[in-house]
Design goal:
Helices cover about 35% and strands about 20% of the residues. The protein has about 290 residues and is α/β, with parallel strands linked by helices. The protein has a single domain, classed as Purple Acid Phosphatase, chain A, domain 2. The strands form 3 sheets. A 7-stranded mixed sheet has the order 1-2-8-9-10-12-11, covered by helices on one side. Strands 5-4-3-13-14 form a 5-stranded mixed sheet, covered by helices on one side. Helix 4 packs across helix 6.
């Protein structure tokens, strides 16, 4: 059993690194191009933070229906830290992470799992709080209880998978998806070269650029405009910041979505057309509406 999980995670690393839409640490998604067969139904299903919420994970997969939509992509983020617990209160979200990797292996070029701040915390075993609980201690103790002497090997395989994730998705129709953006204080310290080279552990520590791209909150419009110019995009779709109603418009060019509670949502994006923030909000789908 432990070796099966280790092999699964290692295959997930390989699938992520060989994703045909990946360039460095970015996923580039074209619109109606020869690469996607110039199909009118080229779509991207974008989810926010999931945090161990299995029912919403299942709803997102059902809505995407990748098996019957060969030109459709899906972006997921922040799978770990939340959801069911073991008898000792340990976080079991790693089980959902394993299922997300299996999903990636089923559709290796169309399932894209991007790095979140809780991933960077796991990579470096640093403290991260959620609902009053330190989540890394919680998930690591649960892993040790389930896998016992193989626990360290499983934790290493999880770390390697999380570190292999892309940082963002850039669409031809000028939409950018990442977990977050650098906040105002650190925007000038962000190094865009992080998108082009292999990630290292210290990139995920403050003030590393992978850290900055996953931990920022409450960006000013000036910072949003600066990052849009840097990335050559028009609209940002982010997660990270909690959204009680499932989403919000948090700037002239920013939508934040969450998928980790009963009011969670997803975005259904047609990659072949251009959007404004106003028209993109029309594509928000409440997860509770998906059977």
């Amino acid at each position: 059993m432990p070796q099966t999980i280790i092999d699964l995670l290692n295959k997930g690393v390989e699938a992520g690194n060989t994703d045909r839409f990946r360039r460095g640490n970015l996923i580039y998604l074209p619109g109606r191009s020869a690469e996607l067969g110039r199909s009118p139904d080229t779509q991207l299903i974008a989810a926010g933070d999931i945090h161990g919420h299995r029912r919403n994970f299942e709803r997102i997969i059902a809505f995407a229906d990748l098996a019957n939509n060969p030109n459709r992509h899906i972006v997921m983020q922040e799978i770990i830290h939340g959801g069911p617990e073991d008898a000792e209160g340990g976080c079991l979200s790693y089980k959902l992470l394993f299922d997300a990797v299996r999903y990636k292996l089923s559709f290796p070029d169309r399932v894209h799992i991007i790095m979140g701040n809780h991933d960077t915390s796991f990579i470096n075993n640093s403290k991260v709080m959620k609902n009053g609980k330190e989540m890394n201690r919680s998930i690591r103790l649960a892993l040790e209880r389930e896998f016992q002497e193989a626990g360290d090997d499983i934790k290493l395989a999880i770390k390697q998978f999380l570190l292999s994730q892309p940082l963002a998705v850039k669409c031809e129709n000028r939409i950018w998806l990442s977990h977050s953006l650098p906040n105002d204080r650190f925007a000038d310290k962000f190094d865009p070269k992080i998108l082009d080279r292999p990630l290292e552990n210290n990139d995920c520590e403050k003030p590393g650029s992978a850290y900055l791209l996953t931990w920022g909150r409450n960006m000013s419009q000036q910072t949003l405009d600066k990052m849009a110019k840097l990335f050559n995009v028009d609209i940002f779709v982010l997660g990270h910041q909690p959204q009680q109603q499932g989403w919000s418009r948090a700037g002239e060019n920013l939508i934040i979505i969450a998928s980790d509670h009963n009011h969670g949502c997803l975005l259904s994006i047609d990659l072949a057309i251009s959007y404004t923030v106003e028209t993109l909000t029309d594509s928000i789908v409440p997860l509770a509406s998906i059977s």
